[in-house]
Design a protein that fits this description.
- This protein is of the alpha+beta class and about 350 residues long.
- The protein folds into three domains: about 20-100, Alpha-Beta Plaits, CATH 3.30.70; about 110-135 and about 310-354, no CATH class; about 140-310, Hypothetical Protein Yqey, Chain: A, domain1.
- Helices cover about 35% and strands about 20% of the residues.
- It is built from twelve helices and 13 strands.
- It has helices spanning about 35-50, 80, 125-135, 150-155, 160-170, 180-190, 195, 205-215, 220-225, 230-250, 275-285, 345-354, and strands at about 10-15, 25-35, 55, 65-75, 90-95, 105-120, 135, 260, 305-310, 310, 315-320, 320-325, 330-340.
- The strands form three sheets. Strands 1, 2, 3, 4, 5, 6, 11, 12 and 13 form a nine-stranded mixed β-sheet that branches. The chain has a two-stranded antiparallel sheet with strand order 7-10.
- Helix 4 (about 150-155) packs antiparallel against helix 5 and helix 10 (about 230-250) packs across helix 11 (about 275-285).
- The longest helix has 21 residues, at about 230-250.
- The model has no long low-confidence stretch (mean pLDDT about 95).
């Protein structure tokens, strides 16, 4: 199975309804192709010469896709936004209001996805099973960013902020471009020589740049360097670690049902098999639930949450198998559906076509 062979294969539209009225915020639809949400908003902020943090959104969207999401802009007129011209970004004004967008604003997402390099349509029995019983609601790989956001979160939870900075700066992803891979290796070899490293920063490494530029002037202030990142991103690191624990426990307890705990500082674990698996993982990780108070960075504390073990979807449309022009002798299938916020299309498709 191959996803996102081209951006047009993966189309996502947010299901969100901002409260409109008089206010200092302008809401707009941002349609993007080949951009991360972070990168797109930074480009908009740069073009308008405003602080990036004046732009708020409800959820990050994939780079290798065509995505449509809502954004709120503080004290930016609709006319200024409509005049922007940035390649592969489109802005459509929704209206004005008072409440900045956040994760709580999102209702869900609508997907239309071309699944390539498959034998044919998914097994009808598997489709029926997912429609009746739902699919296992693990967090998708996007939750873990380049592959190590949970490790950054773990370091923050333990108060090991230099280690967190090292994970941000030095971790080499499997698909890392050569210039970025070499730069990360250079950082590791010249750790602490921030002034030498900053001028060598490759384009597009915005997060790493924010950390390095702080350290250039505050060489041992790793807390300040991490705080130089947007708060929503720092929270995502902690949430990724919680998600990693949840995934491991759920995969070991695939018959679990109902609401399950995503571990945090105020989580109370029960005597059920899922809770026992969570506890075993915590012990192996040598982490206590109270560690999620994030003592050295308390603004990131997480009390925990709950998450459904399985998700039922009301509507799932599976198109006919067609010849796949990108993979000779193989088929492609178009699938469309909507999911509540926090659920992952890639997880559903993995289970549908496995």
């Amino acid at each position: 199975m191959k996803l996102k062979h081209i951006p047009e294969d993966f189309v996502v539209e947010e299901l969100i309804r901002p409260t409109l009225g008089e206010g200092e915020l302008t809401y707009f639809w941002l349609t993007k192709k080949g951009w991360t949400t972070e990168g797109a908003l930074r480009a908009i902020a740069k073009a308008m010469r405003i602080n990036y943090r004046r732009l708020k959104f409800a959820g990050t969207k994939d780079k290798h896709a065509i995505t449509k999401q809502a954004v709120s802009a503080f004290k930016i007129s609709p006319e200024r936004l409509e005049g922007l011209k940035i390649t592969d970004l489109t802005i459509e004004i929704i209206g004005t209001g008072e409440d900045p967008l956040s994760l709580g604003s999102l209702e869900g997402n609508k997907f239309t996805i071309v699944v390539r390099d498959v034998d044919g349509e998914p097994d009808p029995e598997k489709v029926e099973e997912i429609l009746t019983k739902g699919f296992l609601n693990v967090f998708g790989s996007q939750r873990f960013g380049r592959g190590n956001t949970h490790l950054i979160g773990k370091a923050i939870v333990f108060g090991e902020l230099e280690k967190a900075a090292e994970e941000i700066l030095c971790f080499v992803a499997d698909n890392e471009f050569l210039d970025k891979k070499e730069f990360r290796q250079r950082i590791k070899a010249h750790w602490g020589k921030w002034a030498e490293l900053v001028p060598q920063l490759p384009r597009g490494m915005h997060i790493e740049g924010d950390v390095l530029k702080w350290l250039e002037h505050n060489p041992t202030d790793f807390a300040g360097a991490i705080r130089n990142l947007p708060k929503h991103l720092r929270k995502l690191y902690v949430h990724a670690y919680q998600s990693w624990i949840f995934n491991k426990a759920l995969l070991e307890t695939p018959n679990a049902e109902g609401l399950l705990p995503v571990p945090g500082s105020k989580t109370v674990l029960g005597r059920d098999d899922f809770s026992k698996n969570v506890q075993a993982i915590l012990e192996k990780e040598e982490v206590l639930l109270t560690n999620f108070e994030c003592e050295r960075m308390p603004e990131l504390r997480s009390e925990g949450d709950t998450r459904e073990a399985r998700i039922k979807i009301q509507k799932l449309e599976v198109g006919p198998a067609e010849p796949d022009e990108a993979f000779e002798g193989r088929k492609k299938v178009t699938v469309s559906f909507s999911l509540p916020k926090g659920c992952y299309a890639t997880v559903l498709l993995d289970q549908l076509f496995s």
